[in-house]
Design a protein that fits this description.
Number of strands: 8
Shape: globular
Largest sheet: 8 strands, mixed
Order of helices and strands: EHEHHHHHEEHEEHEHEH
Length: 277
């Protein structure tokens, strides 16, 4: 794996499966591996922010240690806050008080970093890059992480947004469009994984104001599978490097078992090390 001026790092989401990515990024930081350009989706956006600010171990600590302490995922939050996760804790208390985010390093970083959201109005991917406004950084990463159905709609610049994975789960083409064609892709599923393409039925109660978003959600799995097939073809052709779990993983999107999460983190670290040899 050789880093050049046209190298890009693409970080898939996947909820708590993103601890695999935490391991990869901590390994990169331990070895002073910096990409000129990175792009993250959902959990990939969250973890990518700590990578760009050079806060080694921060993402692991928030995803594993603080999850055990604060138990910030669960149905109780969906009932009490209308959100499957405690966003007040994750996007306010954590970055401002418990495990402060280093906005100064972000603002001075020469690395470009984009985060992906999905526009509720158009159903299309939006790509945001922000280094100087902490409030806008949080707005973007919160929107990128707002899962459909179980999280409320978020807003960026006054526009309604949801999880970036709806429209662009693996934004490798975005990186290539910007001129970054020497790419490393970090996935959170094993090789050969595919989503079911059975047509999703959306109850009329959800997103009636946003027909384009409804269509995007219904097409999500098909588009994801197409992206994965493209990634595997590019990998086989030697055009990209892919780092992914080697086996089907036991960690769910809303996993709370710390032992499982730590094992997946360690796998990510070890596989990243292999790529650096």
């Amino acid at each position: 794996m050789k880093i050049t001026s046209n190298s890009g790092l693409i970080l898939e989401g996947g909820g708590m499966r993103g601890v695999f990515t935490c391991g990869v990024l901590d390994c990169f930081m331990d070895n002073e591996i910096r990409f000129p350009y990175s792009i993250g989706v959902s959990a990939g956006a969250c973890n990518g922010l700590s990578y760009v600010s050079r806060q080694r171990g921060r993402a692991k600590f928030s995803n594993i240690d603080l999850l055990e302490k604060y138990n910030y995922i669960g149905i109780k939050y969906l009932i009490t806050k209308g959100n499957i996760m405690d966003f007040d804790l994750l996007f306010d208390t954590f970055p401002n008080e418990i495990i402060p985010y280093d906005y100064e390093v972000l603002s001075k970083s020469e690395q470009r970093f984009e985060m992906v959201t999905t526009s509720c109005k158009t159903g299309e991917a939006c790509y945001f890059e922000e280094k100087n406004n902490p409030d806008r950084v949080i707005d973007i990463v919160k929107a990128s992480s707002s899962l459909p159905f179980v999280c409320p709609i978020s807003y960026v610049d006054g526009e309604p947004m949801l999880d970036g994975g709806i429209a662009d789960s693996i934004p490798i083409m975005r990186a290539r469009e910007l001129g970054f064609d020497n790419n490393v892709v970090v996935l959170t599923r094993n090789k050969g994984y595919r989503k079911s393409e059975r047509e999703m039925k959306i109850v009329n109660l959800f997103y009636r104001k946003y027909p384009a978003l409804r269509r995007a959600i219904m097409m999500r799995n098909k588009i994801y599978n197409e992206q994965i097939e493209m990634v595997e073809k590019m990998e086989d052709a030697g055009e990209i490097v892919v780092i992914r779990p080697e086996r089907p993983i036991e960690v769910g999107r809303m996993e709370r078992d710390a032992k499982k999460l730590l094992a997946l983190y360690e796998e990510g670290y070890a596989l990243a090390e292999q790529c650096l040899r």
